Amino acid sequence: MTAKKVVKNSLESSLKRLEEIVETLERGETSLDDAVNLYEEGVQISKQCAEKLKAAELKIKKLSRDIDGQFTLNEPDEA
Amino acid sequence: MASEKNVITITELTRQIKFSLESSFPRVWVEGEISNFKQHTSGHLYFTLKDEGAQLSALMWRSRVANLTFQPEDGMKVIVRGSITVYPPRGNYQLDADQIQPLGLGELQQAFERLKRKLDAEGLFDTDHKKPIPEFPEKIGIITSETGAALQDIRSVLSRRHPSVEVVLAPVRVQGAGAAEEIAGAIKYLNQFGGIDVLIVGRGGGSLEDLWAFNEEIVARAIYASKIPIISAVGHEIDFSIADFTADMRAPTPSAAAELVVRDRSELLEDIGNMCYTMHGALDNQVSGLRERTAGLVTSYSFNRPKDLVRKFSQRVDELDRSLDISYAHAAQRVHQKYSSLHLQLQALSPGGVLKRGYAIIRKEGRIVSSARLLGTNDLADIQLHDGTVGVKVEKGHLV
């Protein structure tokens, strides 16, 4: 369950990578090939990030409690 | 002599007493009963604290009186915190009070103070233990009442600022018996739930009694044990709870917690846009830099040297080619002449040629006669000349 978090391409790591790319490109020390690849990667990431931020409505999952006072999730976790 | 008996002045003696007393009792908690209570027009309080065996003058300065939550009266049993000071003009010592709690009343408050001291001593409030709040949480756990204003506040702030986050709500009672256990259980459960980046634990404001669940030890320990960073959001600005001290971050209200936990989406999108712009500019710069460098190289002398060499060589090749053609033509002509003369020589040597010059071939019975001894008298023979053959008879042969 915790492994999932590492695998998923979180917004935080995406933005970190994007910042890294911007810095590298700004230093201008890479070869043109690498620069073009980095640029493409950066555009890709920024698209993904924007996509991720697009959701229009807040998703709320509500837990409920069983008789013993233990929490359970009603709906299955879609992820 | 009097001067040899170490005589000191009253002022000096009092100074020494003051130093010794004040440094020995910088902070004391004293329990006693109030008497001679008097509030001066200046606002300062003067009173005497006493028990069966002794009494102690006490005062509280106006600035601290403002913090009192009750009106002290003669006969009231209290616990006073303060320091011992000496007042030299009167030659007396007194308790300079900074806090007064009624005894018997405000037990919750005292329990709060006791637990706070205990947990503080245990290190539950240590800043070293506080976990950083993630900058971009994607899944936020909320532990509060399902029906309270806190949930509505958090929900509306999140919807406005950053609706792409996911919320997992663990509904709990936030006051009354069993509330603390439910809150602690929810913290534990959400830690096992998986994928949750940050927790908000809280409720709207209320009286000390209403907020009590957040001052319970079990909640403090659950917060301390949580692997997920926790933002406490209990009540309004001025109420501090034990949960606030233990949490990784304290928000004054539930709305504030929601503001703290997510970044504004439109700001974030603008940041991303700016990064794209910067990235594009940087690549553009690099390309035009390279373009300039290329142009510089193409026109440079050394870059054009090989081209010159190639031109020179191809000219040379053309020249060689031309002279090769010429040599070949000469050689061919020579061969042709040679052939013609050989042909003539060859023709001259052929039998036809020889016959034309007057020679003849003599055959006897079809065979060429190459010796006189082969022909006897009366032998018949053919003589071939260049224009025909005649038959002859030998009159006088070599053979007899």
- How many E-type strands of chain B? 14
Beta-strand portion of chain B reads 15-25%
Q: What string gives the helices and strands of chain B in order?
A: HEEEHEEHEHEHEHEHEHHHHEEEE
- CATH classification, class level of the largest domain in chain B: Alpha Beta
Helix content of chain B: 40-55%
- Cα(first) to Cα(last) distance of chain A is 11 Å
Number of domains of chain B: 3
Question: What attributes does this structure have?
Answer:
A: 79 residues, alpha+beta, 2 strands, elongated, disordered N terminus, B: 400 residues, alpha/beta, OB fold (Dihydrolipoamide Acetyltransferase, E2P), Rossmann fold, 3 domains, five-stranded mixed barrel, 11 helices
Explained architecture:
Chain A is built from three helices and two strands; from the N terminus they run αααββ. With 79 residues, chain A is of the alpha+beta class. The N and C termini of chain A lie close together (11 Å). Chain B is α/β, with parallel strands linked by helices and 400 residues long. Chain B folds into three domains: 2-105, OB fold (Dihydrolipoamide Acetyltransferase, E2P) (Beta Barrel); 113-263, 3-Layer(aba) Sandwich (Rossmann fold), CATH 3.40.50.261; 353-393, no CATH class. Chain B is 44% helix and 22% strand. Chain B is built from eleven helices and 14 strands. In chain B, the strands form three sheets. In chain B, strands 1-2-3-5-4 form a five-stranded mixed beta barrel. A five-stranded parallel beta sheet of chain B has the order 7-6-8-9-10, with helices on both faces. Chain B has a four-stranded antiparallel beta sheet with strand order 12-11-13-14, with no helix packed on it. Chain A binds chain B through residues 1-2, 4-5, 10-12, 15, 18-19, 21-22, 25-26, 28, 32, 35-36, 39, 42-43, 46, 49-50, 52-65, 69-71, 73, 79, and chain B through 134-136, 138, 146, 155, 158-159, 162-171, 181-182, 185-186, 189, 192-195, 197, 265, 268-269, 272-273, 275-276, 278-280, 282-283, 285-287, 289-290.
